[in-house]
Each structure stands twice: as C-alpha cells, then as structure tokens.
Amino acid sequence: MCCNPNTYDDNNPLLGVVLSGGNSNRMGKDKGLLLKEGQYWSKITFDKLESLGIPVVISIDSSQEEECRKVFFPDRIVVDKINVKGPLRGILSIHDQFPDHDLIVVASDLPDLSTAIIKNLINVFDEKAGEHDFVVYSIENEPEPLVGVYTAEGLSKIFSLHISNQLEKVSMKHILEVGNTFFIELKPDDWKELKNYNSKVDLR
C-alpha cells in the first residue's frame, strides 16, 4: 500500500488531486488501474504529486473503492458524491470536503506527464497568486483542464452556481470560461506529455 497515512496539512493551501473517477467506457476498464512498468497509472500520478511535498488525495467513483483501498490508505480516497456529470463531479466532491484548499488536479490517464511539468504549473500559479481563479495548460490555444490549479475561491463560485441551478454547462471548458482563467501555452516539445489514452488502440 502506498503513501504515508498522515492527516492533511492544513497549513499547506495546495492539495494534490488525482482525478480517477471516469467510467473509461472506451478503454473497457478503469484507466487509473492500468499498469505501466508494474505500477497503477493512478499511483504513478499520485507519487509524482506527493514528491513535490504537497498532500494528495485520489478522487474515485464508488465502484472503484474496493480496488483502490488495496493501493491507497482510506484517508487519501475521496468518493465522488456531488450530483453532476463529468470531471467536475470529482473536483467539486473534493472541494466540498476540503473547501479551504486550492486544488492541483491531474487526471490519472496521463501517465507520461513529468514532474517537471507539474512543478512548472505550481510555479506559475504561485507567480500569479491572487490574480486568477484557475491556472491550466493549453495546447495551440485549446485548454487542457485536467492539468491545472483550481483555487478554493474559484471553485466556491462554481459550487454556488451548481447548487442554485445556475450553472449552464458542466463541461470543464465552460468552467474555465466562467472563471477567471490563466492559460499556460505548452511548448510543442512537451505536447507528448499530455497524451491522453482513451482506448486500447492508444496503448499500442
């Protein structure tokens, strides 16, 4: 079992989130539990975030809980509970449990993402502190919302819109449009790090 089962560091405003609650219909199985060099994709991402000295949790669907408990300590697992579709379900579920933390979100199906790219995201977020709700990468002006930082203040606005039925769309692209978002344009040499594996064909 991975990870030191410490309680969360309330003095660290940044909380790492491995987003692993998708259905993975096209892949045919939970992508977070696929293996790369003998390790689960979700654990690879978890370890990269934790290596940067921040507390980390994993966001999952209830159907994944039994298997994830074999790998992660229970206090690092957050089961999605907010009634909204898509990745926003996991992000708002984490925000609901940790409302005072800014979240650095990384999808579990990005096993090629380097620690350096994540660290750069944190550095830019720190440089822009207080200026934006969200900071995410983009490729050729197309946002990559599942590698980004979502502030507690920004998510509070989104959560309020959701519970008052005023959130027009639940797509992450719309969330970035609603909030004040800063985009980090990823250099072409780094595009491969954000390769998304959606089906078994992509694994070949």
Count of DSSP helices?
6
**Which topology does CATH recognise?**
Spore Coat Polysaccharide Biosynthesis Protein SpsA, Chain A
Poorly predicted runs of 5 or more residues: 1-7
Provide the residue-averaged pLDDT.
87
Helix-strand makeup class: alpha/beta
Tell the overall outline: globular
Task: Compute the number of strand runs.
Answer: 9
How large a portion of the residues is in β-strands, by DSSP E?
15-25%
CATH class: Alpha Beta
Q: Helix amount, in percent?
A: 25-40%
Largest sheet strand order:
5-4-1-6-8-7-9
How would a textbook summarize the main sheet?
7 strands, mixed
Superfamily (CATH H level) name: Spore Coat Polysaccharide Biosynthesis Protein SpsA, Chain A
User: What string gives the helices and strands in order?
Assistant: EEEHEHEHEHEEHHE
Under the CATH scheme, which architecture would be assigned? Alpha-Beta Complex
- Domain tally: 1
| Cα end-to-end separation | 29 Å
Cα gyration radius (Å):
16 Å
